[in-house]
Amino acid sequence: MKRALFVVFMLLATTAFAQQSVPEIPFDANITYLKLPADINLGEASGVAVNSKGDIAVFSRSNSANGPAYGATASQVLLFDKTGKFLREVGKGLYAWSYAHTVRFDRDDNLWAVDKGSDMIVRFNPEGHVTMVFGRKKEASDEAEHWTRVTPPRPPVNGQFRQPTDVAWDAEGNIYISDGYINSRVAKFTRDGDWVASLGEPGSGKLGNLNTPHTIANDAKGNIYVGDRGNRRIQVIDPKTNQFVREIKIDAPAPADAQPWMGAKPDVARLLAPDAPPGSATMAPGAPWALCVTPPNASGQQFLYSSDAFPGRVYKLTLDGKVLGMLGKSGHAAKSFGWIHEIACPSENELYVAELLNWRVQKLSLKPAAAKTSTAGQ
């Protein structure tokens, strides 16, 4: 009898999940908001950030005419004003440039660039000069080989990175660097750059286990949100204890007709199966590829935005993880996305999304008052 009731319960739960109602947020998109000079194109747009003046920084995998076809330099920071007018290039020819990943502004409008290829994180002051450096790339005089993944994983090294991904800060100005594709941890430093701790380790399941911490963001209270992409969840660090205290999962199934930007349609059930290889959930709906937290509104409320690669949506959440709405899909046209790699959210209803596959940044204007509820996955 108990087994029969359990089966009935599971069937009802599965049906409820398949018909989960998530509001679709209407929005407008501008794919030509940034005015590039005639002789400049974006490559893969891996990062975008907005400072207190509204200036927009884009980290692009451009500049790749320098070097061999494999392993060529592909990092360039371009700065635009709040109207989209091009201002200048930041850090032209920098030694740390190798393979762009993300870019962020801190509360003092310092610009931070995270370069996955050189294993370096560089801080620029508002004038565009380097003021702090983390990590060190392999020397050109040595044999230049990429990091390899081994089992069991190599232990992380204090102050060294293996393909880092992003950076965030708590209320005290302490620095958190997600690290990354080879390591699976968050490195914490003081605001002055002194080493504090390595948080998390490779794995899945329990809190603190990570598989490709790909994106990281903070709220006004200093809580740190880690996009644990390979495990399809967001984990939250309490900065006072350095502990992972909770997780957020986005469970909004993909529409039946959803298609990826490229490749075969993912077998989501297989990606999420208990025996799936580690990291398989990267291409499942809700896997966090990019995170941002909005500034507090007039009521002091903040919102969390997250994006996935398939079905290519952006999700709006409360900080405790409730999904408030979603927008977009995979595709090439305006209002559709090709692997959003970073989101900037200067306000609740104004987003900038950097796309790898479409080589562009879109400015999104949300209209939540006109939101309509759809049943995802019917």
Overview of the molecule:
The protein has 378 residues and is mainly beta. The chain has a domain at 42-136: Thrombin, subunit H, CATH 2.40.10.500. It has helices at residues 2-18, 268-271; strands at 21-24, 27-30, 44-50, 56-61, 76-80, 86-90, 100-105, 111-115, 120-124, 130-134, 164-169, 175-179, 185-189, 195-199, 201-202, 209-210, 213-218, 224-228, 233-238, 243-248, 290-293, 303-307, 314-318, 323-327, 340-347, 350-355, 360-366, 372-375. It has a 4-stranded antiparallel beta sheet, with no helix packed on it. The chain has a 4-stranded antiparallel beta sheet with strand order 3-4-5-6, with no helix packed on it. The protein has a 4-stranded antiparallel beta sheet with strand order 7-8-9-10, with no helix packed on it. β22 and β23 (314-318) form a beta hairpin. The chain is globular, with a radius of gyration of 20 Å.
Mean pLDDT: 92
- Which strands sit side by side, in order, in the main sheet? 2-27-26-25
CATH-defined fold name of the domain at 42-136: Thrombin, subunit H
Q: Indicate the multimeric state.
A: single chain
Q: Helical segment tally?
A: 2
Shape-level CATH architecture of the domain at 42-136 = Beta Barrel
The amount of beta strand, in percent, is 35-45%
Order of helices and strands: HEEEEEEEEEEEEEEEEEEEEHEEEEEEEE
For the secondary structure, the number of strands is 28
Q: Outline the low-pLDDT stretches.
A: 1-19
Topology record:
Blueprint: H1 2-18, E1 21-24, E2 27-30, E3 44-50, E4 56-61, E5 76-80, E6 86-90, E7 100-105, E8 111-115, E9 120-124, E10 130-134, E11 164-169, E12 175-179, E13 185-189, E14 195-199, E15 201-202, E16 209-210, E17 213-218, E18 224-228, E19 233-238, E20 243-248, H2 268-271, E21 290-293, E22 303-307, E23 314-318, E24 323-327, E25 340-347, E26 350-355, E27 360-366, E28 372-375
Parallel strand pairs: 15-16
Antiparallel strand pairs: 1-28, 2-27, 3-4, 4-5, 5-6, 7-8, 8-9, 9-10, 11-12, 12-13, 13-14, 17-18, 18-19, 19-20, 21-22, 22-23, 23-24, 25-26, 26-27
